[in-house]
Amino acid sequence: MALLDVKNLHVEFTTYGGIVHAVRGVDFSVDEGETLAIVGESGCGKSVTVQSIMGLIPMPPGRITQGTAHLRGHDIIQSKIIDGKDIRGNFVGMIFQDPMTSLNPTMTIGAQIAEPLEVHRGHSHRDAMKRATELLDMVQIPEAAKRARQYPFEFSGGMLQRAMIAMAIACEPLVLMADEPSTALDVTIQAQILDLVKSIQKETGMAIILITHDLGVVARLADTVSVMYAGEVMEAGSVDDVFYRSAHPYTLGLKEAMPTNQTGRSRQLKPIDGSPPDLFSPPKGCSYAARCPHTMEVCLENNPNAFAMQEGHQAKCWLHHEECEVAAEDLYQA
Amino acid sequence: MAWYTVKRLIQGIITVWFIATATFWAMHQVPGDPFIGEKAVSPEVEANLKARWGLDKPPLEQYWIFMRNMGQGDFGISFAQESRSVNDIILERFPVSAILGILAIVFAGLGGVLYGALTALYRNQWPDVLIILLVIIGISVPSFVFASVGQLVLVIINQILGFNVLPVAGWGDISHMLIPALVLGLGTMAFLTRLMRSSMLEIVSADFIRTARSKGVPSAQVFSRHQLRNAVLPVITVLGPSVASITTGGFVVENIFGIPGLGQSFVLAVQQSDYGVIMGTTVFYGAFLVLMVIIVDLLYAWIDPRVRLE
User: Fold this and answer.
1) Which of A19, A122, B41, B53 is 20 to 30 A removed from A235 (C-alpha atoms)?
2) Which residues of A have a CB under 8 Å from any CB of B?
3) Which of chain B's residues have a Cβ under 8 Å away from the Cβ of A173?
4) pTM
5) A/B interface, count of CB pairs below 8 Å
6) pLDDT digits (tens, 9 = 90+) for A294-310
7) H helical segments located in A205-259
8) How confident is the model over A76-115, as pLDDT tens digits?
9) Domain boundaries, chain A
10) CA–CA distances in Å: residue B32 to residues B27, B272, B274
């Protein structure tokens, strides 16, 4: 059994304009020491997926209508409590996108790192602060003791994200959920932060769920990838499978839309035409059909199931149906 | 911080000097003088009195004399109240106004924060709607109406019950203070409630609240440690100006409830053209307000570490 196993998750939001079907049947799982990357463009539901599992989306207007999530076999949709303990900050740590706004401006960095230790481990404030200083040291913040007494506005963006990481790993969680941890940072700091996360994973053996839209980050950090589009997982598999044996037209589109450092016409950036479907009334068929270069009749009417390519690699595309005349192998070449 | 305080105090002194000067000249432009009362005095007596108190000197000279005395902390004497010194009057009456004002500020501050937090917690549910309705009334109805209505209601309650639950007017113990302080603080309380509500609603969707919840912090602690402290910042900002509105509101409320505070004697002094008392109370109130604003600014820096005072 996987460490964290999510099946058929559906999340909806009630708004003035109607019901937004933000997440529509997402499956994923992650094991100890493993890194799962969830990639996709803005608004595809990747943040909502993890935040809804953690009970961090406001309900109402949001609600989980279907699906299960199990952490070590315990259901965590109904209750965030396992054996009388809140899983959040304890078994599952989280890092968010914008470290500048994600920390309380009127609390010292040290006190914020110490907080989960006080809440979950019953540490005294004094002990928790001491541990917070050690954690700051661990995330390579110089003069940790002095820094622990400072406020967020006295830190740079990269250092704030390090502090966020220290906070998330304070209780040695089983899973670290990183919601675009490097998006708000400049490129050199991004690399430092990702390396830091990776080295901590090596030490503690925690699982990481990494949400990003940066395929470079995925290649650097992840073991497995789920490609999300319009609230669904389009393709999932190991990094090698998804990157080198892409089985879904959307994954191919994403790869072609990635800038490279080579010159020449063949290396031109190719955007995916069109825009994602309206999630107030998601299409009946495949949600990518309107933008897909391989659209067939069946795509418009029926939403495909996930077809298994090989062990652990699957794609939600009719091209892989056995009766499909277009050879799926053509896709791999692109 | 120390240098900032010194700088603010110097600015404050300049402000107070400006208030004193403006009041002095405005006061002398008003027709009449302290000796035109109901009892007419003969021209000889009037001339004698004026000479006695230096009112026959040219205004500019009077101004210099006044400024010099004020610099030494001496506001002169009252012409209307049996030649008592203005300092005496302030010393006797200010504590009464101060108690009333502090009570009103406490009512307004605690009430505003509490009701504001409540409305935000029960957003768009009945407690929110009810409190916001009361807030609109509180902001739009002036304090003298509340004072009169409050007195009337108190009279009716006392009559129905047949004994004095709370006294209708006058001054003495805590029972005399409650209703006037409530009336005085009501407008500010309404204003602070509205401010607190919008501030709470803004903070509730802040990223750092989500972070706190992602750490598994219990909701009561998220509320007190993360939400309230940040939401209360704008409320503290307006506390300084609120002191001003409560002070001026005090003039009216003290008169209606017959409270022997400084506000009451100020109103009386203006009616009697009692130069010394007008100047003394105005300058005193001015200095008091300036000091309050400085204190609130220092308090703000203490609560919000981002505020650096330089």
Assistant:
1) A19
2) 51, 54-56, 58, 80, 86-90, 93-94, 96, 98, 101-107, 115-116, 119-120, 151, 153, 164, 167
3) none
4) 0.75
5) 75
6) 888 888 888 888 888 88
7) 215-221, 239-244, 249-256
8) 888 777 777 888 888 899 998 888 889 998 889 999 999 9
9) 4-222, 244-333
10) 10, 9, 10
